[in-house]
Amino acid sequence: MYNSQLLCTYHFYDKSLRELLPENERCENILKNVEDNNDFADVLYKAELLQVFGLNDIDEMNDLKVVEEMELLYKKIIGDETFATCALLSGKKVFTEDPVTGFMMMFNYHTFFVTHRCLCEFIEKGELSQENKNLLMKVHE
Q1: Which of 27, 49, 55, 133 has the least C-beta neighbours within 10 A?
Q2: CB-based contact 69:1 (threshold 8 Å)
């Protein structure tokens, strides 16, 4: 089951990602003490990705269980036009028109923190705010 309670933090350690979220402007005093550390961000990304799927080892990401979980998530969100569009856009980046594969690509390092944020909102509220729709489209264009 997808852990929608996890708060992603890996993007705080990568300036190129940190600048994408609007609330980071409101956290300016806290974030001014955060140093860029892409190696740490990468390790933290992997740990957070494992946590949302309840896994302990990165090798488990290839497990059929994770694929099935992503497919279940996809079925829940496909009715949302923004998610559907982003899944197709992500798929095209890896030369596929399969929206499920595209959805799986939305969990990559550069977009997972936004995808997770939007999934959590969708799971909780059944829809995305306009702010999150815009953000999701921005990172998947």
Answers
A1: 27
A2: yes
